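$ ./design --mode recover --in tokens.txt
reading tokens...
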């Protein structure tokens, strides 16, 4: 993935919430630098990447 915007992050958060309702989890393997940067900007490292 070369870029991601806030809509893409919202989609990932919605997917994560939907999976949690079904007692499932979301694990993003080898997230791209773009995703890591976007998560850092919005403070979502722990929510989407499992990082503190």
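writing sequence...
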């Amino acid at each position: 993935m070369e870029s991601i915007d806030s809509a893409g992050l919202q989609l990932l958060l919605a997917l994560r919430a939907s999976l949690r309702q079904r007692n499932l989890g979301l694990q993003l393997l080898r997230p791209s630098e773009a995703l890591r940067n976007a998560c850092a900007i919005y403070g979502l490292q722990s929510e989407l990447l499992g990082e503190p």
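exit 0
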